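Backbones bend. We report:
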Amino acid sequence: MEEQPLICVKIERSFVEFELEMPENNENILNLTDVPVSVGVKRGTRTVNETREVESTISNQGMTLIEWIRHFGSLTMYFDVDFFVGLIEFDIQTFHDTLPKVRCLSITCLIDQPDENDILEAQNLLRPFLPDVRHLQLNSVPLSENLSLQHIGMANLKVLSFEYLSNVRFVDLCTCNAESIIIGKKGDQMSLVDLNRFFKLWITGSNPRLEELFIEWDTETIPDWNILLKGLKAEIDDDEDEEGTKYFTIQNNRDISAEIKIHHSEDTASVRFEII
């Protein structure tokens, strides 16, 4: 196995990296109960101008990989975890049971054309962590019937961030409990009709916990913002003066007001919805 488990502890500008060299085996699955052959340590400091490092090797302390993870987990109440679909070489459930609560979770799919196995892996990565996660980021993760925004939205997320995919509809977010939703998209195909429908549903009472929605996509063409604002009874704020930007205010049936900021630059457009 070329890549070895790496645990990095960062304290302000200082860092300590522990590279755990695992014994070779004939399987592709990393055994979390194996004892590392050796533990490489890299200590250093980083500044704007330079990085200083000192490398050494320490005893494996007779601890298994799980015990090393638990040892470092004892230093903090919460973990941030990044997963990459297609590169997982250990049992997810065992890893989940080893960690303290994960508050920030990122899942990235590096595969251009993911198949059913990749979708299943993403689903298996997300399921055990979702009840405790508060910040969730999905990068190019394919959604499906068993891994949909409706399922994800049932969690009490503080922040949901994902890349807009062709099979995603904004109305799928209407039952989402997230306080903040951030959506990015590569390409110029963005359905303002669908987004308009989402805002109309908010006016009638959906997404009561939503405080902010931000959407950005690539386009050199100025969008027809009238499509987005149709039927919202939006009031324009003439006091705001910013090139390429307009501000509107809408109100829902619970007398809660929100500001919609629409913006277009040379090659991107964005919409920001924020409770005021």
